[in-house]
Amino acid sequence: MLIEPLGHPGREFGAVIHDLRPEELRTEATIAMLNDALARYAVVGVRGMPLDDEAQLALADRFGPIHQSILDASRRRLADRRLNDVGNIDVKGNLKDATAPAYGDSNLLWHSDLTFLARPARITLLSARALPPEPPPTEYVDMRAAWDALPSDRKALLASLEVEHSVLVQRAKCGFTDFTDEERRQAPAVRHALVRQHPVSGRRSLYLSSSASHIAGWPLDQGRTLIEELLEHATQPAFLLSYAWHANDLLLWDNSVTMHRATPFESTEHRRELRWTAVVEAA
Ligand code: OGA
Ligand code: MN
Known about the structure:
CATH superfamily: Clavaminate synthase-like
Number of strands: 15
CATH class: Alpha Beta
Distance between the termini: 34 Å
Shape: globular
Bound molecules: N-oxalylglycine, manganese (II) ion
Helix content: 10-25%
Number of helices: 7
């Protein structure tokens, strides 16, 4: 087993693990190694790790409680609510019609997973099941480095703020407003601290996402302006990692210290099919 750091030299952001055997995923030592790598590098690929749904869920289960989708069944292709479809496949299993606004389009916006829930995603596991010949990369930003780079008077202002997040705000940003009444009822806005401290590394980081609406207790406009400004700061090239997918990659990331986005990919020919599982924060 070998860990290859990715990204800007001297910055610990992104790594790929080589030569891990599938049966090793079941050992305590491997789970501890992956947790350590996530605390240090935040985005960790495992190369050459083909997983089926059962193996993916068994692995996710080792990290904590698994998120279950509350989406209406009519929007889901997969029966098991612990697994989501990522890529260009529609609910019927065909290539998506790229012209219709879809629920998953918001993956193109900078986000952290499930930030609109009281218990957001801590770790996401994404397993590549089918990739086109030139797979679009997934981009990440390091919200620890973004925090570190802020001037200290700015840090002092931000440290105690809370951000209001909503899935309705997030999806409206990419033209999707077609929620059922039941889905709206199940999606009340939630608040999360703007600045977090990682339980293992001790590093502080900004916590934002496309679901961020405004700052709790601030006039709406002022809060939105601050969020826009911080998103612009955090998504500078200096904090960016572009992850190049390989066949049978398994990618894990720590959502509490990163944002990510899909890069555009439309195809009438090639399937891009990945399986998503999220482990949520402890209650
Ligand atoms: C995700 C996601 C980006 C991509 O899986 O959570 O946002 O590149 N995916 O598909
Ligand atoms: Mn995502």
